[in-house]
Design brief:
4 helices, mainly beta, elongated, eleven-stranded mixed β-sheet, disordered N terminus, single chain
């Protein structure tokens, strides 16, 4: 429907919608063109207004309105035309054309130039109370008609890809909508959109190191193919199951070494891992059997676990995996949204089993990497250690792997090494489908969320180098083997096991190196109070005699002395200055080393059977088991007694209000320095 400019200007007057009571029937069609609103308009509607009497020329647009794939059909929806921010036309509501079964908007656009002005549009979606920019523009020409009832102008906030270009001329901006009406490859650009529509018979290909991120809705009626190293991040709803996720595992179909994998799609068949794949799940509830096969009974086939498909968020050991490149292809509906994974903790009632209880094998369930730091943060309320254990196969095709083959990663203190140089492989991200162990401290639920997903490796966030955390990464090496542990010092840590900082050392290895706490826990990563000066025991176990060396790997972070005491040779060595080479003359277990920041503390350790430290502004004193209860006092350097109490009452020693500085704790026989800050 079209009206000439002159008759339109003579007969039409904008009527304030608040006071519109009636209008003659022969003006009804015109009113729909120039922008009458019904009396039931919403407060959130934009204040778009125009007086046609101010313009000489006009054109009409017959349009179909869409926001994020949804056609607008509400009587309160609006469409407005603009030139350089000035309103040039408004219309509402849409009109239902029964013969075409569609809602159309009829809009008259005004101008004082006969032609040439580029007209843009905005849509107001009354249902969702949102205003959206329209991608399409039209060029004004007096008396022209854009769109018809049968072929309306498509006005949408969605960019459309036609196989060679976007209809807007540019890659969709972050937060926009996109529709792929032809095949799209991320060589044309990564997508970060609010809405994405992949139409029938269309393939979206996400290349290695590329990504597609969809915040609100992904409507996939075609195929989304994520190549190895590519990332698909979905933060909202997903329609369709035409997804193909490729992953290249660590080893291939001809190699009997293990990768730890999980599935990024729902109910994946184990056959996807390869026709020759040797697959094991991990059963935490089985006894570890420290005097028998040391954990072997926990590795069970999927059939033994009663699993016919790969479980969401669960990891599996797989050898002879994939094809000749180790590539595995997962096809189906991708995992998305919040995913809860049950973690088991089985108390076997056996002291020898305690250190092995609570280990669960899980996996990143998404077709995108997740941030380890976000994973730990999201699970802060989960009763588990803030540590993960990543398998790094050293040669299991030649014999059973050991617990030295795990890279141990802690959220605060960083990561240890593995026999396959895991130190240089870890960058802070858990890859799509990558499996890893977590340690639960009770039966609980682990959580995966969309917010953990990352679009890339983000090199700046690679290794966790917490400059504000004082830590020493100690490395023991010799006879072609090496092992690293970490000691870190934090204001809220304690000498006892802290789930946020301490990571148990995995046993069952013929080459072991770990520290111990007063409770006797064997630790690969140990957090200690910030001003802790007591010696820490370092243990080693080896089956081979010969020369070994101990050193600090992160010397660039160390600004003070780190004293090592060798009980066998009675040598004191400052590891911040030099590595320490020593000889092991007989194989076996040895607690021959002590380490401390204070050389004097190493000498006094043999005589004093108690230790004091500060945690959260409280002084705590720990006595060795079976020691006689003693009277302790806190003394200033001037000799004034500030607090005096037995060890049983020492928990009440609040020192947060004391001036910062050095103090002494004494039992009248021995004295220990302690720093209050």
């Amino acid at each position: 429907m079209f009206f000439g400019t002159k008759s339109l200007v003579k007969t039409i007057r904008i009527v304030n919608m608040h006071y519109l009571n009636f209008i003659k029937s022969y003006f009804i069609s015109v009113i729909f063109v120039v922008g009458m609103l019904t009396s039931q308009f919403l407060k959130a509607q934009p204040n778009w207004q125009i007086d046609p009497g101010n313009f000489q020329y006009s054109m009409t647009v017959t349009s179909l309105l869409e926001i994020n794939g949804d056609t607008l059909e509400s009587n309160n929806d609006r469409i407005a035309a603009f030139f350089n921010g000035e309103v040039r036309g408004v219309t509402s509501p849409t009109v239902y054309i029964a013969s075409l079964d569609r809602h159309l908007a009829f809009l008259t656009v005004f101008s004082n130039n006969v032609s040439g002005e580029v007209i843009s549009f905005k849509i107001y979606d009354a249902t969702n109370e949102q205003e959206e920019e329209v991608i399409t523009t039209v060029t004004f020409s007096d008396g022209s008609q854009v769109g018809t009832n049968t072929q309306p102008q498509f006005l949408t906030n969605v960019h459309v890809w036609n196989g060679s270009s976007w209809d807007s001329g540019n890659l969709p901006a972050t937060g926009a909508g996109a529709r792929l009406s032809a095949n799209y490859n991320t060589t044309s650009g990564n997508l970060d959109v609010d809405y994405l529509d992949v139409q029938n018979d269309v393939t979206l290909t996400i290349n290695p190191q590329a990504y597609v991120k969809v915040k609100t809705e992904l409507n996939n009626q075609g195929t989304v193919h994520v190549k190895p190293g590519g990332s698909l991040l979905t933060l909202g709803s997903i329609t369709g199951d035409g997804f193909q996720i490729d992953r290249i595992t660590t080893f291939d179909q001809n190699t009997g070494r293990y990768s730890v994998v999980g599935s990024p799609i729902e109910e994946a068949s184990f056959s996807l891992l390869g026709s020759q794949a040797l697959i094991y799940a991990y059963d935490e509830s089985a006894a570890y059997n420290t005097t028998g096969n040391t954990g072997l009974d926990r590795f069970k086939t999927p059939a033994q676990m009663g699993e016919s498909t790969m479980q969401k968020g669960k990891g599996y050991f797989s050898a002879f995996t994939g094809d000749e490149k180790g590539e595995v292809t997962f096809e189906g509906k991708i995992n998305s949204g919040t995913i809860l994974i049950p973690l088991s903790y089985t108390n076997h009632g056996d002291a020898s089993e305690v250190d092995h209880q609570g280990y669960n094998l899980v996996a990143n369930p998404y077709p995108a990497p997740i941030s380890y730091q976000s994973f730990i943060s999201e699970n802060s309320a989960t009763n588990m250690d803030e540590t993960i254990y990543l398998w790094d196969d050293f040669g299991s095709e030649n014999g059973r792997g050991t617990n030295q083959d795990y890279l141990v990663v802690n959220a605060t203190l960083g990561n240890t090494d593995s026999r396959s140089d895991g130190e240089n492989k870890w960058d802070g991200f858990i890859r799509s489908g990558q499996g890893f162990f977590v340690k639960a401290n009770t039966s609980t639920n682990l959580i995966f969320t969309d917010d953990m997903k990352e679009s890339g490796n983000n090199d700046d966030a690679g290794f966790f180098r917490q400059s504000k955390v004082e830590r020493y990464k100690l490395k023991l090496e010799g006879k072609g083997r090496s092992k690293a542990i970490i000691l870190g010092f934090l204001s809220d840590a304690t000498p006892s096991k802290d789930w946020a900082y301490d990571a148990l050392a995995l046993s069952n290895a013929d080459f072991q190196f770990y520290s111990t706490n007063p409770e006797g826990n064997k630790l690969a990563i140990q957090g200690l109070p910030k001003r802790y000066e007591e010696p820490v025991s370092l243990m080693l176990q080896t089956r081979e005699t010969g020369t070994y060396s101990m050193s600090i790997m992160n010397l660039q972070e160390v600004n003070n002395s780190v004293w090592l005491y060798d009980k066998i040779t009675s040598q004191y060595v400052d590891l911040s200055v030099q590595a320490y080479d020593f000889n092991v003359s007989s194989p076996g277990y040895s607690d021959r080393f002590l380490i401390s920041r204070e050389k004097e503390a190493l000498a006094l350790k043999e005589h004093r059977n108690w230790n004091a430290y500060i945690s959260n502004s409280f002084i705590k004193v720990e006595q060795q088991r079976f020691s006689t209860t003693k009277q302790y006092k806190l003394v200033s350097l001037a000799g004034h007694t500030i607090i005096s109490s037995t060890v049983d009452d020492v928990e009440s020693w609040f020192v947060g209000d004391l001036p910062s500085g050095l103090y002494l704790i004494s039992d009248d026989i021995h004295t220990q320095k302690i720093f209050v800050e």
